């Protein structure tokens, strides 16, 4: 067992620095005296640290609070626009980016199509996107946070494997750091989205959360004690390629019967198309004939129209996901599970199927206390999560919105 | 996000106290100067703390080390026999207990049959067992650690639900604390065994480990960063009742198709008995006729004799467990998975089936780096794990053997 380090003077200062900045961030505008009360630090320590933040521009004075007898105290808060972060979402069809301030507010966005590019060409698209956004950062750039598909070593920012982009051992973090001369943080996109989702767990919620992102692919993020859990090889949450169907369909990973083959948007659209072709006069059949292809909007329309065949396809996919959720419940007994991604937008009949199957396959003592909900509908989750992860590492801040 | 407390003087002292005791424990016999070097604390602080341990009897001086020029330094080490812990394993057939010293050495053992008793009668057996062991503790009793089946609130030691013992919301920790006037720690038996197993991860091993205990029931323990992960409801690792077979057999939990119905020792013995009855002339058939019943020893004998029918039964059970292991790999990406319990003693053909199925159902990037092994063969794992958990909480020590 490795020896924990003793608490040195420098560590104590860094700890207290983070504590004061977080207090200004969470409670500001707030007086120095109130910060001292909230943190338990001495007024002298707090004043020294606050003054340093003021001269860095990270915090600013914003008038005086109510007097409690003596002189009215000066109030201080973090200046949300003192620094900005560039967040990137290297999505399947397009690379999206945003300039985000310290409060997690999006100031600028940009998007570039990927158009099937991969390897160095896809990397060039990343560079162009950041080039564009860097030019639009007001003031100081704190760093770049990236959410990308694949297995990512979040420690050094190397993408070990991203099959669609054909990236293998790509040191994206280092490349961006060298090119743009700012700190970078690279994480798997589902994990980044999960971290963004964690910020919206209600008051009094546990510090643990699992967010499962169901779209073209399926990936989860596990938040333990307020921090992303990466596992030993940065693959924790990679549930999309766990085999759950014996002799199942071929998966893009090269194996068979993975969760993605039965519960992703691809699985739903493939099953729906099959149903449509079998019954040309059905809702789905007519829709397919009219549009030449089916998308999740068509599925949503089928559900809204009360089409039974659409419902069957959606419920089947939801049940498969529910079985995977039951495994997570038994393994981790985390009470809050949030479903996000394009398939989650299908809403009720799908959610009910997930919940029902997860409960059916779980011990009542565990499943009965687990809340499974659909997360916020947001297409910015990866961008915001990646930006938040960078802020946590650089400043100890977790932006709420 | 809750504010982390500032580091107070008292916390610093407690931290340094634990640090010095752990250093004496892991590195002793060791000089005060060496402790100062290892911990980074000042010699004065180390001397003060060591002297306190000496007067408590927790540590003792054991002669002098080699001189490096000046006076030869006095060496100090933790006195393993300065305190003892009573560890209990409330097993299916018998309640076993042991008196364990601070080095995890078993000094005395005792066992009482349960004989189908449950409720208050079973609680009486626990009392009698502790009564007996308390009388045999040499010197000071640090506390009592208990491993029990069921869902246990390890925070306050309440057994929320232990179906076989018919215990519901039984405050076992408090009852033992009041009766024997020492600290107690109550944990689920599989989790206690997992913690014991964690201690034997080799040098350089990750601080994360999953141990799966496969016997009459199936339960796992998840160790993260050197600590047991409990989940939000103390059910993390309760994988035995996750439904994995559609329209499966009835489980003792009241539901159908749970992992236990296909991968536990009961499942193996039930399938083997079925095979034996169908083919009276087979190895299993003759064994059944001779003994009237089959046990795991018979299964082991069948494997040793190269009996194909026995092998089929064992491999089928192993494959089901492998599928559950694949789920854990995807969810947690922990590289070290250890199999323990009576079924693990079956060894090779079973282990191979678990490994093969886990690999088949996992992403190569994850499964390929996961080591799945059979743990130490020990019937004391629950006792030692429960005792270790008590020592960690009371002294910050983790006994190695």
Written account of the structure:
The structure is a homodimer of 401-residue chains. In chain A, 42% of the residues lie in helices and 22% in strands. Chain A has helices at residues 9-27, 32-39, 43-56, 119-134, 172-180, 189-198, 260-263, 265-278, 283-291, 296-304, 308-332, 348-360, 364-367, 381-395, and strands at 30-31, 59-64, 74-78, 83-90, 94-101, 106-113, 140-148, 151-153, 158-162, 167-170, 184-188, 209-214, 218-224, 227-229, 336-340, 371-374. In chain A, the strands form four sheets. The first copy, chain A, has a five-stranded mixed β-sheet, with helices on both faces. A five-stranded mixed β-sheet of chain A has the order 14-13-12-15-16, with helices on both faces. Chain A has a three-stranded antiparallel β-sheet with strand order 1-3-2. In chain A, helix 1 packs across helix 3. The first copy, chain A, starts with 8 loop residues before the first helix and ends in a 6-residue tail after the last helix. The mean pLDDT of chain A is 91. At the A-B interface, helix 1, strand 13 and helix 11 of A face helix 1, strand 13 and helix 11 of B.
Keywords for this entry:
homodimer, about 400 residues, alpha/beta, 5-stranded mixed sheet, 14 helices, about 40% helix, about 20% strand
Largest interface summary: A-B, 67 and 67 residues
Overall pLDDT of chain A = 91
Strand line-up of the largest beta sheet of chain A: 6-5-4-7-11
Q: Helical residue percent of chain A?
A: 40-55%
The rounded distance between the terminal residues' Cα atoms of chain A is 40 Å
Dominant shape of chain A: globular
> How do the SSEs of chain A run, as a string of H and E?
HEHHEEEEEHEEEEHEHEEEHHHHHEHHEH
Our estimate of the beta-strand percent of chain A is 15-25%
Alpha plus pi helix count of chain A: 14
Number of strands of chain A: 16
What is the alpha-carbon Rg of chain A in Å?
24 Å
Biggest sheet statistics of chain A: 5 strands, mixed
* Low-pLDDT windows of residues of chain A: none
Task: Return the structural class of chain A.
Answer: alpha/beta
Q: What oligomeric assembly is this protein in?
A: homodimer
